[in-house]
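Final report, Chapter 2: Outcomes

The project's central promise was a pipeline that accepts a single protein chain and returns its three-dimensional structure in a standardized token representation, suitable for archiving and comparison. That pipeline is now operational. To close this chapter, we reproduce one record exactly as it appears in the project archive, with the input sequence first and the structure output second.
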Amino acid sequence: MSRRRASSPDLIYPSRRVMRFCVLSIFIIAGVWLFTLKADLSPESLGDSQLLKRAVLSNEGDVKEHPIDEYVKSFPKVRSWKETGVPTSTGREGENGLVIEDDDIMEIEMGMGDTKEKVPFDWPRVRKLFVFGDSFSTRDKDYRKDGVDWGHFQELHGKATDMKWPDYLYAVFHDFHILQYWNLAKVGATIHHSVLPPGLESYGTFETQINDFEDLFTPLPGPRQVDWHSNDTLFIVVFGINDNGRLNRDDLHEGGGLDVPATTKALVDSLINQSRRLHSLGARNFLFMTLPPLHLSPKYKLPSQVGYDIHERVELSVTHFNDNLRSSVKQFEDDVGDSNVMLFDLNKFWKILLDYPELFGITDVSRFRMTIDGRLPNFGRMGLAYHDNQHVSWSSAELIARSVNGLLMRNSASIQFSNASQTEYTA
């Protein structure tokens, strides 16, 4: 029998025209798919998904650094768990620039006396807190009228809601049993009369607040119940909101608007000069804050609100103010030499919160009122970012205090200069 396979039916091969059509169809489908993929990853299609935009755009060298990365860089780094021991002046250099020596222990003199040498700042060891500012920070205290107390706000102890951000810093993020807190901030305060006076004389300025401090709390160590010293006291200075609001109101200035670059520079120069005065009175630990993006607050952002017509001017003036402040704070630290000078970039932090409210548990970043069954609930509990058209809610204030606390801790000797194991800091 023959082993030859039975012949199979004749195969039908496609014509060249059909082949060209199939190949062309494949290319068209692939092109549509690639175009769709590119569109899905474009900034326009991503909308508010800034986290994905960050990952996609980070590979493009000409793209501006993402705000999250900018903000993170404003914090000192911490050692990784692999970097143990104590940073010293000699030894190997760790990944984050700290010099590590596994066997040596650097002793830090944290004495409570006054010294001309720069002593490392340590937030857990701070015992006195002075705050200067405006309605963003105030507790409406009048120490000239009521006298200097012991610096313990009993009404804040154990409280969780309806506080300003420095209240949270004092009562929640530090031990209020040992931290004394005096708040000299005043509603409506500006930096200095000579640049932009306050709306009412009673509001005062940074200068008048320092006058109160000098008269009531100096010379060192101040009244018996205060007993503050250079190394155990933190001075917080937050100004500029009222100044930038008044700067952009033409009705307050005869002959039209003020020169924004020149005026904001004068404001920052005055702020730093007044801070030098605090330094001359014994202050050695300073915390400054940039201004938040005021143009994004409801007062300037919403068409129905009073400041909408000047929101672009407010944005410009805040940008000039913050740029001047960042460089001037650094220069101030270099000039005095013996002080710890820190800057919390509230502008960068607040922009991140406005872009990603969900990450912070914030419900709405524009509306500031809510009515339920005909009644007004607690707006902070509702997760609103703002309490009114300009001031932040207590939920936002708590978030700001939490972030400031993180910056203070990152700058602290207990973190940066302590003896670290893989699991523990020992200061």
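Archive annotation: The CA atoms of residues 191 and 206 lie 5 Å apart.
This record, like all others produced under the grant, will remain available to the consortium after the project formally closes.
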